[in-house]
């Protein structure tokens, strides 16, 4: 039955059903209250008592106990209704049955998890600030040439797996997902080589319609670079090999396509070309926003508004290769912009602009 907002039950912070595990802890001569207040101690206890997971009922009780311990460590965390019980916030949600299994099988991951709990509150604050920025930010008016970009045809290649079966990238894995070992394998990364054709076509399109200086170069190892310097707006550099394309722009914007090419990932040259085109055409049209530094952690917040109305972006630390001097210079540059938005590139004389919001 529907409830009005004022009638909705409060989020559940602590769940029942942990009593069997509580008794198990007592039987081992330990204090369940101490374990409930100390996730690190709970992790050590479970690693030393794997028999806690031998009974499904006891394992379930241990999972509920562990979830309640997370709620003690992070008071903003609440229980969520899923196929498997989870506890978390909007920024992070933890399946508790997997959590206790990890506690038993991987004692070496304890410190990393405890560190995650310690930074969780800041992650929640960062997410709230990011949402506020997106909510309050104005939307740019993109300035686009009268003709849209047309992707060149990509050559078709066939790839096979170790059994000789054709790999259907894009639909490779069934609904249950890839096998675990696929995350540590990288095969056929050259399937992204057609992106270089897309780069050439994009540069020709931009050079035809915008006032932009284009400089091309090739490194000794075959890496190709294109530097685009418009008369107005953000400069743009595209670096490409047979395995990836990297786009840097603005003061700190930096994206690599694909962001991962392990066998578990299922991107195709076509899907990554779509991301490349969305990014490059948006930057030229005036759809790149950068804000830095934000919050206690001095994060970078980026937003790229695509010409079809969608957007991409996020928040995080700037690249680790940036020096303190470069970061300060970037901050000064971004302060001079209107709400962090880079202006659109200037169209060439005679090109009738198409403005899209």
Q: What attributes characterize this protein structure?
A:
9 helices; three-stranded antiparallel sheet; 18% strand; disordered N terminus; alpha+beta; 357 residues
Short description:
The chain is an alpha+beta fold. It is built from 9 helices and 13 strands. The chain is 35% helix and 18% strand.
Question: How would you characterize the overall build of this protein?
Answer:
By secondary structure, the protein is α+β, with helices and mostly antiparallel strands. The protein has helices at about 20-25, 30-35, 40-50, 55-75, 95-105, 110-135, 195-210, 270-285, 325-335, and strands at about 80, 85-90, 95, 140-145, 210-220, 225-230, 235-240, 245-250, 255, 290-295, 300-305, 310-315, 355. A five-stranded antiparallel beta sheet has the order 5-6-7-8-9, covered by helices on one side. A hairpin with a 4-residue loop joins strand 7 (about 235-240) and strand 8.
What amount of the residues lies in strands? Answer: 15-25%
CA-atom Rg in angstroms: 26 Å
> How much helix is in the residues?
25-40%
Q: If you average the pLDDT, what whole number results?
A: 90
| Molecular shape | globular
Order of helices and strands: HHHHEEEHHEHEEEEEHEEEHE
Count of β-strands: 13
Structural class by sheet pairing and helices: alpha+beta
In order across it, which strands form the biggest sheet? Answer: 5-6-7-8-9
Q: What's the total helix number?
A: 9
Give start-end ranges of low-pLDDT stretches.
1-8
């Amino acid at each position: 039955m529907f409830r009005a907002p004022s009638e909705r039950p409060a989020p559940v912070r602590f769940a029942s059903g942990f009593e069997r595990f509580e008794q198990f802890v007592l039987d081992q001569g330990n204090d369940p209250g101490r374990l409930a207040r100390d996730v690190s101690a709970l992790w050590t206890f479970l690693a030393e008592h794997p028999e806690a997971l031998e009974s499904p009922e006891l394992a379930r009780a241990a999972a509920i106990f562990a979830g309640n311990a997370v709620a003690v460590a992070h008071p903003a965390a609440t229980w969520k209704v899923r196929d498997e019980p989870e506890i978390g916030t909007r920024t992070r949600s933890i399946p508790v049955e997997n959590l206790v299994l990890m506690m038993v099988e991987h004692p070496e991951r304890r410190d990393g998890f405890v560190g995650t709990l310690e930074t969780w509150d800041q992650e929640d604050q960062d997410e709230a600030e990011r949402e506020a920025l997106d909510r309050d930010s104005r939307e740019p008016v993109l300035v686009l040439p009268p003709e849209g970009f047309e992707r060149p045809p990509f050559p078709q290649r066939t790839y096979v797996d170790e059994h000789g079966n054709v790999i259907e990238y894009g639909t490779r894995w069934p609904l249950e997902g890839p096998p675990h070992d696929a995350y540590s394998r990288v095969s056929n990364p050259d399937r992204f080589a057609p992106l270089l054709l897309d780069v050439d076509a994009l540069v020709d399109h931009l050079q035809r319609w915008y006032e932009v200086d284009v400089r091309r170069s090739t490194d000794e190892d075959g890496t190709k670079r294109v530097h685009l310097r418009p008369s107005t707006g953000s400069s743009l550099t595209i670096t490409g090999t047979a395995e990836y394309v990297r786009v840097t722009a603005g003061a700190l914007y930096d994206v690599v396509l694909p962001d991962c090419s392990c066998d578990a990932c299922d991107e195709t040259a076509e899907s990554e070309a779509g991301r490349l085109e969305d990014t490059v055409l948006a930057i030229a049209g005036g759809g790149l926003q950068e804000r830095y530094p934000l919050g206690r952690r001095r994060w970078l917040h980026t937003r790229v508004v695509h010409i079809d109305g969608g957007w991409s972006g996020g928040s995080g630390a700037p690249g680790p290769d940036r020096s303190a001097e470069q970061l300060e210079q970037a901050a000064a540059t971004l302060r001079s912009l209107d709400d962090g938005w880079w202006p659109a590139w200037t169209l060439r004389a005679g090109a009738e602009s198409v403005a899209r919001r």
